[in-house]
Design brief:
By secondary structure, the protein is an alpha+beta fold. It is built from 1 helix and 3 strands. The longest helix is centred in the N-terminal third of the chain and has 20 residues.
Amino acid sequence: GKENITFESLVRMRATVDSVLDTLIHSRIIVAGEVESLQQVESSPDSVILSVKILPPYPCNYINVTIYTS
């Protein structure tokens, strides 16, 4: 991308992910979910790494999901 990630864009991304997790929990698609980390990639200022931990409703431990955007 041509734009670097700003603090405000990280705050908006975090709010969006939190909202999606809340919707999934209230819809009983997942039991729990939380953002483990959301950070700008130091070597690539237009990229973000998002790590989310979710708990599905069936017998299973937490599942860690990492999303890398660039």
